[in-house]
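subagent[fold] <- orchestrator: predict structure for attached chain, return tokens only, no commentary.
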Amino acid sequence: MTELSLRTRESFDAVMRKYADMVYRLAYSRVGNTFDADDILQEVFLRYIRADKTYNDEEHRKSWLIRITINCTRSFASSAWNRHKDSAEPDPNEGAEDPALAASETKSDVMNALLTLPEKYRTVIYLFYYEDMSVAEIARSVGISESNVKTRLSRGRDMLKEKLEGGFIDV
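subagent[fold] -> orchestrator:
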């Protein structure tokens, strides 16, 4: 097996295969909608191609992709499209069964409860438990201090515990 180059144009297919699921799951955990997560996935990898940069190592590339995914979900949340959706009309895709998440066994009561948490808690919990990132890695990726990550993890765990013990059933 050949070693991946750290240049974007030389290894795009391999990088896409390696990180697409992670980017998609993070986007889905932040927006809660399969179609919006697909759009964000595409935008992240378009930015990756356009950046055409060299990475120090695979951790640097992974952190960069996580940071861009978070930025894209923030941009989506503040976009005119998202702000002007008719709130009286329910989104037919909201809470739709996502085959990719179901296949990876992340669609569970815990994931449903996680999706109801505020974004700042949802992101750090997702990265810590689902992507196995350390507190330091999360702090660098999200752009907050390590103590803030620990605080959000603690508060988020408490919220999840309350939701799961309280008979949380649906989103």
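orchestrator: received. Logging for downstream: The longest helix spans residues 58-78. The chain is about 65% helix and 0% strand.
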